Amino acid sequence: IKTGQESLINETYLFLKTINKKLIVESKDNPQLNGCCTTLTGLIIQNDFFKIVHAGDSQIWLLRNDMFFKTTTDQVLDETIFNSPITSYFGGSENYLKFDSDISIHESLIDDLFLICSDGLFKSLNQKIVKSILKADKDLETKAKKILENCLHAGAEDNISVILIQQTK
In a 10 Å sphere around its CB, with 0-12 CB exposed, 13-18 middle and 19+ buried, how is residue 45 labelled? Predict the structure, then answer.
């Protein structure tokens, strides 16, 4: 990690930890929000360096050339159990935020396509279907809508979110 990248990453983590403290205070001060929490998964992008920011069970997948693979690890009690409780998250009544800070991609390639999604996506669709949608000769918005349509058609029982980011140069 270069000096500028390290500074950006440290500033981002500090900012996110500050938000987490505020969420915990707000949850304690407002009975309607008691225990509210959420996962966070995203990318810090600088030139062709991608740092993954990850807490919880949302996911980042990468389509590179013809390979489609998950870059994050679910932070749950037991990965072998469906809907296992998450062990790291934003908010809640106590500070359980532990970032998985070891994930980075030091060199991205032209046409790398990142899929950031909630865990509900792959509870309704399999990897093969998602990969075929991502490989289609369509714009990112059309691909994201197609994934969501397929999830709804499959009877998704969990929340679904989809963000697509493609390296273009």
Answer: middle
